[in-house]
Amino acid sequence: MALPKYKTSRANTHSRRANWKAKVPQLATVRTPEGEAVQVPQNLAAAVRKGYMKP
Fold it and tell me: How far apart, in whole angstroms, are the C-alpha atoms of residue 52 and residue 8?
């Protein structure tokens, strides 16, 4: 396992963490087996379309 050679300053640590941003998931409109149209995240669209999970 890699170990840091030097201590990272508090300012560098805080600025790195402050620049992280969460992304809004891309929504896809999908028709369920029951016939209703719902919006779900793109990565779950196929499962909802096939009826494996409820939106």
Answer: 46
